[in-house]
């Protein structure tokens, strides 16, 4: 996958396209540094729609409930999962994990 | 169906947990206050109640899939299509298939047929969460009386 600092990784491009289409957000406003909730205004229900689209597109299952619990318990900052470049890194890891099991 | 009580499913007749599919029966009542308004002299089951029927079949499927550990709540209806009218006394076949079991959510595709004719279909989305206090027991009882618990092989599922 290419990783252009200016435009983000290939994973980011796919995720950003998903967010733009699913949450009806202007594509130009979505950057790797964007926080899904604080910057893009994505609510919990819209995030589930995005998660479904991401799960289907990448063949994975985002562990949303575990992430949410960890954030709510203060174990990790929300940025770790909900800033897009970090979310994309998690997606890449899940894809690699799934590939390793095949 | 007990339309006024929003109990739409009469019996679950088939459940395949491996395939993620369910088939249920819903008999439209001969009479109901719903029909007096919808429409006067021309009773039809409203599309929203057909949607609820599909949602309840899907909900039963998700309940069984999750081993009755979590409760599904409808969050979205996509691509709903209402293809034919259906009126009082109709016996409906309601089917649903689990499309995706996500983390804290699930997606199904559901459909209703009457005498082999397509009535409606939709993609439905649900949020799944631990049972709110007090809801577990009545949901299990409804699952038992519909035959779902027995088909799912969970607990004392003998239908009354």
What is the strand and helix layout of this fold?
The complex is a heterodimer of chains A (102) and B (160).
Chain A: E1 3-4, E2 8-9, H1 10-23, H2 44-58, H3 64-72, H4 79-82, H5 84-101
Antiparallel strand pairs in A: 1-2
Chain B: E1 11-16, E2 21-27, H1 33-37, H2 47-65, E3 70-82, E4 91-101, E5 105-114, E6 117-130, H3 136-146, H4 148-152
Please explain how this structure is put together.
The complex is a heterodimer of chains A (102) and B (160). In chain A, 27% of the residues are buried. In chain A, helix 1 crosses helix 2. Chain A is 59% helix and 4% strand. Chain A has 5 helices and 2 strands. Chain A is mainly alpha-helical. Chain A has a single domain (3-101), classed as ACP-like (Non-ribosomal Peptide Synthetase Peptidyl Carrier Protein, Chain A, Orthogonal Bundle), CATH 1.10.1200. The two termini of chain A are 20 Å apart. Chain A has a two-stranded antiparallel sheet with strand order 1-2. In chain A, strand 1 (3-4) and strand 2 form a beta hairpin. Chain B has 160 residues and is an alpha+beta fold. Chain B has a single domain (3-143), classed as Hotdog Thioesterase (Thiol Ester Dehydrase, Chain A). In chain B, 25% of the residues lie in helices and 38% in strands. Chain B contains 4 helices and 6 strands. Chain B has a 6-stranded antiparallel beta sheet. The longest helix of chain B is centred in the middle third of the chain and has 19 residues, at 47-65. Chain B is globular. The mean pLDDT of chain B is 94. The interface between A and B is medium-sized, with 14 and 11 residues.
Task: Please describe the structure with a list of short key phrases separated by commas or semicolons.
heterodimer; A: 102 residues; mainly alpha; Non-ribosomal Peptide Synthetase Peptidyl Carrier Protein, Chain A; 5 helices; 59% helix; B: 160 residues; alpha+beta; Thiol Ester Dehydrase, Chain A; 6-stranded antiparallel β-sheet; 6 strands; 38% strand; globular
């Amino acid at each position: 996958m290419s990783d252009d600092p200016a435009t983000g990784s290939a994973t980011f491009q796919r995720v950003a396209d998903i967010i733009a289409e699913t949450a009806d957000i202007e594509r130009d406003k979505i950057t790797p540094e964007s926080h899904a909730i604080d910057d893009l205004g994505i609510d919990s229900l819209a995030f589930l729609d995005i998660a479904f689209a991401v799960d289907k597109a990448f063949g994975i299952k985002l562990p949303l409930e575990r992430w949410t619990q960890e954030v709510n318990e203060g174990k990790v900052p929300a940025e770790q999962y909900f800033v897009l470049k970090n979310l994309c890194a998690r997606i890449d890891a899940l894809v690699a994990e799934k590939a390793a099991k095949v | 169906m007990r339309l006024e009580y929003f109990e739409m499913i009469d019996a679950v007749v088939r459940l395949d947990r491996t395939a993620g599919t369910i088939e249920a029966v819903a008999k439209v009542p001969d009479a109901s206050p719903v029909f007096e308004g919808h429409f006067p002299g021309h009773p039809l089951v409203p599309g929203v109640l057909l949607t609820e029927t599909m949602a309840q079949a899907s909900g039963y499927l998700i309940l069984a899939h999750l081993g009755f550990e979590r409760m599904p709540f409808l969050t979205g209806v996509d691509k709903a299509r209402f293809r034919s009218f259906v009126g009082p006394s109709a016996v409906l076949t309601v089917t649903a298939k689990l499309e995706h079991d996500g983390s804290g959510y699930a997606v199904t595709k559901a459909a209703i047929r009457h005498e082999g004719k397509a009535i409606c279909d939709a993609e439905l989305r649900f949020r799944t969460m631990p049972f709110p206090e007090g809801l577990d027991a009545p949901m299990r009882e409804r699952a038992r009386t519909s035959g779902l618990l027995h088909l799912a092989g969970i607990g004392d599922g003998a239908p009354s």
